[in-house]
Write a structure and sequence with these properties.
The protein has about 270 residues and is α/β, with parallel strands linked by helices. The protein has 8 helices and 13 strands. The strands form 3 sheets. It has a 5-stranded parallel sheet. The longest helix has 23 residues. It starts with a helix and ends in a 10-residue tail after the last strand.
């Protein structure tokens, strides 16, 4: 039996478009998004030395141009009119400019994360080691880029970024989470941080920690209710040890320490040891 590849290609395209893309004209290109944020990470880390060479500004401008196109694609994909309109183009350009203006601030946050990793790990020989080697630092750096886009109202792309970091590190941070400075994830594998989680400054997590949601309410049609606060609030200077799970919209007070293998579904007062 001879395969008609033209017919096969058409069938696959039409079925997938009907199920997932409907009549959208554009979708973000995952490979391009990943390449852009990997370059931006190098600029923020100033490593490899290529990020410091002559022509770096030109390459940074090229990153902005590519990202602007992907932001426009995401806007067109989510647009109810499915149109590539002038307004969307102007908004994509404005969002990109605001995002790139935030890079120095994002870099300062990453520096605080690197310092927290160095100070929080006696095995680290210098601040360069966590910068270049630690999966927690890498995952949080990608999260900070994704979160900056999320707060600008960009859809799809922030999740592409954090899921890319998830695939690299085993650390799953939703871009909607709010995380303060000097955040350190030690070892990291298996950490999950949910969308509406709020984390203060100088917080340290170990591997396997979950900051998640309990079973959430359903609407009259049996669908999950979207947009509600459902994840924990973690205060400043909190330490949560390995494999501990904190679920729901609970408050963990400043300076609290949660030991390993705990199941937390209620508030923990400031300074407490559980």
């Amino acid at each position: 039996m001879k395969t008609d590849f033209n017919a096969l290609s058409k069938e696959l395209k039409e079925a997938f478009n009907r199920r997932f893309h409907q009549q959208a004209k554009f979708t973000p290109d995952t490979k391009t998004v990943v390449a852009v944020v990997a370059d931006l990470k190098d600029y923020l880390f100033q490593y490899p030395p290529l990020a410091r060479r002559f022509g770096a500004a030109r390459r940074l401008a090229q990153c902005a141009k590519k990202l602007e196109k992907q932001i426009l694609n995401a806007m067109c994909f989510m647009c109810e009119t499915r149109g590539d309109c002038t307004l969307c183009k102007a908004q994509a350009k404005c969002i990109t400019q605001r995002f790139f203006a935030q890079l120095p601030q994002i870099q300062r946050l990453i520096i605080s994360d690197v310092q927290a990793a160095f100070e929080g790990d006696p095995a680290a020989i210098s601040e360069v080691e966590p910068l270049l080697c630690y999966p927690g630092v890498l995952a949080v750096a990608y999260y900070r880029l994704a979160h900056a886009l999320q707060t600008q109202g960009v859809q799809l792309i922030p999740r592409i970024i954090t899921e890319y970091a998830h695939s690299l590190t085993g650390i799953d941070i939703h871009p909607g989470a709010q995380i303060g400075p000097a955040f350190f994830i030690d070892h990291g594998t298996g950490v999950v941080i949910g969308e509406t989680c709020v984390i203060g400054a100088h917080v340290k997590l170990y591997q396997g920690v979950t900051l998640g949601a309990k079973s959430f309410p359903l609407d009259e049609n049996g669908h999950p209710v979207k947009g509600i606060k459902r994840h924990p609030n973690i205060g400043n200077h909190v330490i949560i040890y390995a494999e501990t799970t904190v679920l729901g919209n609970v408050n963990i007070g400043d300076g609290a320490i949660l030991g390993a293998n705990k199941w937390i579904t209620a508030d923990v007062p400031a300074g407490a040891k559980v």
